[in-house]
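Task: sequence in, structure out. Protein: EAL domain-containing protein.
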Amino acid sequence: RTKIEGRNGFHFFEPGMDGQTLAKRGLERDLRGALQRGEFEVHYQPQIDLLTGRMTGAEALLRWRHPVQGLVSPADFIPIAESTGLILPIGRWVMETACRDFAAHMSGLRLAVNLSAVQFLRGDVVALVREALRSSGLPGSRLEIEITESLLLEKDSNTLDALKALKEMGVGIALDDFGTGYSSLSYLRSFPFDTIKIDRSFVKEADTNSDCAAILEAISALSAALDLTTVAEGIETEGQLAYMKNLGYQCGQGYLFGKPMPLEDLFHMTAGVGIPA
Ligand code: C2E
Ligand code: MG
Ligand code: MG
Ligand code: MG
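Result:
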């Protein structure tokens, strides 16, 4: 087993590559080209205050407009981008694009951007965010970053320092997909979260499965006690909306309110006027 260090120091290569490895190599090449050719887009999904029904902000979600395959979901290429290190330039592009979009066109609305664990462990997220805020003019208080438990599992001491530095810039920290993974409650104590986002697998069964309902209720009470804002992910029906609201969830995101959409459509939703070209 030979290990060849790539430019980022974490490319792995095995002699006699199997079909899967070859496919991965092809995808890596395609991803690299996609960034250069400008095939990535950032779409935005509205986040709604469940009490008032008003939009409070939106989550930036990466899309790849593939010349042959059409719009490709991040679930299909983020893992390769992470294992090849391409998530560093791609993630930077997302952060800069989304901050610029929001500073220019979405006055007052908050922006949530997903950061991969690889960006924390191999990149400098504090410098990345500082630069994106500086060049766009977006105030730190309008940005929230979303991380998952996989990052916290790494027990990297720099992670906590980075999160604290982001908070000092006014940036919010959200724990994404809560309830999947390990969901160790000690994370909630050890890291400076502002928001927890309940995974949509729970929300999906909120009004039909009593175990899910019990878990959702406990998380709601815990969040209130810890002064964390709760976001319910993946609300698709009026029933789920009523249920989550009733349990005290403050914010919601889901197809019921809007799917991820291009900036232009989000702008129409908020102002009803087109973005000047
Ligand atoms: P996520 O951060 O948990 O984003 C929410 C996902 O749930 C999005 O999938 C969104 O389209 C989907 N979703 C929202 N509401 C509903 C609903 O009502 N029903 C259903 N069935 N799905 C809903 P998407 O856009 O495919 O993204 C998948 C994941 O890819 C994201 O999960 C996030 O982990 C990752 N991702 C997306 N963009 C980025 C990015 O710029 N950087 C990084 N590192 N990861 C990203
Ligand atoms: Mg997210
Ligand atoms: Mg999520
Ligand atoms: Mg996710």
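DSSP finds twelve helices and nine strands in the chain.
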